[in-house]
Every structure is written in structure tokens, then in C-alpha cells.
Amino acid sequence: MSKNLIPSLEKPLDRRDFLKVLGCIACATAFSGLIEAEAQSTLEPFQVLAADELPQSGQYKLFKIGRTPIIIYASDTEVPDSLARDNVWLVAYSRRCTHRGSTLREPNASGVMHCPDHRQDFDTKTGIPVGPVHRTNKPLTQFKLETRADNSVWLTDVVRTS
Ligand code: FES
């Protein structure tokens, strides 16, 4: 009868080995999440205003990029990362609520976008949560706007993620 002289490489995992395996799985999961987050923070340039579109203060335009509802708003005062155009400053925000992702309603007469699910309000000019309900303190995702040589306006990047 022959005897196997090669020691077995398979041995039961002790507690320390098991924790090492768990650590590797956690690292791999975190890394793939990071890659996914980076992929979402870049997007294809998207035209949002034609060369002859000149929004007035308080006016807005709604559209979608993929499944993300977006608002372009013309502010009467300068806002961080806004785009100056004639007498207004244009800003672009995702209309996904930063509490649990519901789509915000169109701005009301007070310049507030309301979440229909848990009643959080967001300031349309700044994208910051406002009002008596405090479901989230995260501002809306904001996008970068740029003017092209032909005077059209394009959404080109993410400047703030929620
Ligand atoms: S999803 Fe908007 S407040 Fe909860």
C-alpha cells in the first residue's frame, strides 16, 4: 500500500485565518464601491440651454439624464459653482431627495422643492435642505455648467455629490 508523502495543503481555517479572509472580502467590496462611485461622478456633456435661451430670474427647466431628474434654475444672486449668464446665475441640481432618493416636486412660489415622501424641503437656489422637517442635512447633488463658443449651455460634470 502506497503512502502519500506530500503533506496536505488543505487544513481547516482557524479563527485568525477566517478573519483574514473576511478582511479581504471587505476590502474588495469597498474598492468596487469606490470605483462605482467614481464612475457615477463623471458623465457625458449634455446640452441644457440653446444659444438663444435666456432664462429670467426665478425661471427653471426640468429634464432627465438617464433616470436622474435634474433642474436648471436661474438665480437672481450669485451661488457657489453657478454660471453667470446675462443678469442671472444658473445652477443645476439633481432632484433626487438626499434622504431616500424620491423625486422632488417642482419649485413652489417660495422657491422651495418639496419631497412628497417625508416632507423635506430644499432651497431651489442653493440645493440645501430647509424648512421645519429635518430628514436630511445633505444638500442636493450639484452639476457644473459651462458656456460653449456658440453660447449654448452644457452640463459637464459633478461639482458636489450628496
Ligand atoms: S425621501 Fe425625501 S424626505 Fe424622505
Characteristic terms for this protein:
Rieske Iron-sulfur Protein; 16% helix; 2 domains; alpha+beta; 1 helix; single chain; binds FE2/S2 (inorganic) cluster
Can you give a write-up of this model?
The strands form two sheets. Strands 1, 2, 3, 4, 5, 9 and 10 form a seven-stranded antiparallel beta sheet that branches. The longest helix has 26 residues. The protein folds into two domains: 30 residues; 115 residues, Rieske Iron-sulfur Protein. β6 and β7 form a beta hairpin. By secondary structure, the chain is of the alpha+beta class. About 17% of the residues have low confidence. It is built from one helix and ten strands.
Q: How would you sum up this structure in a few lines?
A:
By secondary structure, the chain is α+β, with helices and mostly antiparallel strands. It is 16% helix and 31% strand.
User: In percent, how much strand structure appears in the residues?
Assistant: 25-35%
Q: What is the CATH third-level topology name of the largest domain?
A: Rieske Iron-sulfur Protein
Biggest sheet layout: 7 strands, antiparallel
CATH superfamily of the largest domain: Rieske [2Fe-2S] iron-sulphur domain
CATH class of the largest domain: Mainly Beta
By DSSP (H or I, 4+ residues per run), the number of helices equals 1
Our measurement of the CA-to-CA distance between the termini, rounded to an integer number of angstroms, reads 69 Å
What ligand molecules are bound, each kind once?
A: FE2/S2 (inorganic) cluster
Strand element count: 10
CATH architecture group name of the largest domain: 3-layer Sandwich
Average pLDDT reading: 83
Q: What's the helix-strand series?
A: HEEEEEEEEEE
Structural class designation: alpha+beta
Assembly state: single chain
**Low-confidence runs (pLDDT<50, min 5 residues)?**
4-10, 21-40
- Approximate helicity band: 10-25%
